[in-house]
Amino acid sequence: MSILVINSSPNHNGNTVRLAQELLAGRDYEMLHLNNYHIAQLGQTTPYDQFEQVFDQIDQADTLVFGTPIYWHDMTGSLKLLIDRISEDVDWDSSHLAGKKVILLAQGAAPSATVLKHCDFIFQRFTSLAGMNYLGMASTPSDISKMKKKAGF
Amino acid sequence: MKKALTLIATAATVVLLAACSNNASSTSSNSGTASTTQVSTSGKSVLFINASQNADGNTAKMGSTLLDGVDHDTLNLVDYRINQLGQHFDGDQFNDVVVAMEKADTIVIGTPVYWHTMSGSLKTLIDRFYDLQGNNALRGKKLYFFMQGSAPTEEAINQTEFIMTRVASQMGMDLAGMADNDQEITDMHEELTK
Predict the structure, then answer these.
(1) Closest Cβ–Cβ partner in B54, B163, B166 for A43
(2) Do B159 and A114 touch (CB under 8 A)?
(3) pLDDT attached to residue B13
(4) Which residues of A fall within a CB distance of 8 Å from B87?
(5) CA torsion angle for B99, B103, B108, B112 (degrees, to 10)?
(6) CA–CA separation, A4 vs A54, rounded Å?
(7) What is the pLDDT of residue B2?
(8) What is the pTM of this model?
(9) Distance CA A46, CA A48 (A)
(10) What is the pLDDT of residue B43?
(11) What's the pLDDT tens digit per position in A31-86?
(12) Contact partners, residue B126, CB within 8 Å, separation at least 6
């Protein structure tokens, strides 16, 4: 069972990564920092696009842990972009998205319940349409311990 | 008629400049009065930022309805390569977008609704506004915002409009209106052309 953390924070050692480390303490996992990749926006055809490289790693993992800081009361632009691209540029039937376990980690300086709920809602919709198994969102240490049990980590 | 208005604007500018020159320290760097003193003889300039992947799709169409008869420039975000916040790859064009915004008096941002929120392209741009904190690039600009989608949910509308309200407030922009349906676009068009 391979686990991939997709960190959408520009910070490679910040609170988002720490939350993932806490969740996955004692487990083997890979860490993908989205900011290391050029990902073109929808509709852009450019030679620099590295979406395929990112998606290949996503497609190979069994469990996906998406991590985002809250910027402007929402997930990062890089994570939103990734979701936009997966939904438009991937043939979901021939990919291996269906059945993957998905966890969302969202953290920030006291994000409001409404903001977190909206991020959670977007992930519910996205994972449900892709046939993925969404385990839910965690944003605090107490969420993390609940999520550990739920995910069997 | 337009010429007459231009003359009035010119006269107003001259008066304002005269008023400023009486004051030993010009207020041009003062954000509070910058938008008043920047009134140019060519009238208010309007920039439409289209955050859709399509330069001529539904968002562009909604923008055309809104800006019918209004002299404006269009910037299609899809034509710009913008690094994510914290990325330092060569070829970043964020500053080109900021310069275009700085030149405008009124900025209209239109986005399609993807996954119950603004496009990734617009969120990418807005995240980069954190890089502008401490400078007054967008201060005093009038901002209109609209979202285009097939029946976006109340929650999606509220959350996205909340984000834009916060962005405008933090950047010192004057959020003059938001629309998410044809009726509101019509109302906004009236407001823009009155």
Answers:
(1) B54
(2) yes
(3) 44
(4) 10, 35, 38
(5) -20
(6) 11
(7) 42
(8) 0.86
(9) 5
(10) 65
(11) 999 999 999 999 999 899 999 999 999 999 999 999 999 999 999 999 999 999 99
(12) A72, A77, B118, B163, B167
Residue A93 banded pLDDT, cuts 50, 70, 90: confident
Of A35, A42, A118, the CB nearest to B120: A42
What is the complex's ipTM, to 2 decimals? Answer: 0.95
CB–CB of B156/B117 below 8 Å?
Answer: yes
Q: Among all chains, which residue has been given the structure tokens 């629309």?
A: B179
- With an 8 Å Cβ cutoff, are A81 and B166 in contact? no
Q: Cβ contact (<8 Å) for A77 and B127? A: yes
The encoded tokens of residue A34 equal: 């989205």
Amino acid letter, residue B97? V
Q: Is A136 helix (H, G, I), strand (E, B) or coil?
A: strand
Output the average pLDDT for chain B. 84
Pairing relation of β-strands A133-138 and B106-112? unpaired
Q: Please give the residue of chain A at the shortest CA–CA distance from B161.
A: A73
Residues 6+ apart with CB under 8 A from A145: none
Q: Which residue has the tokens 């998205």?
A: A97
User: Which residues of chain B make contact with A48, given a CB cutoff of 8 A?
Assistant: 81, 89, 91
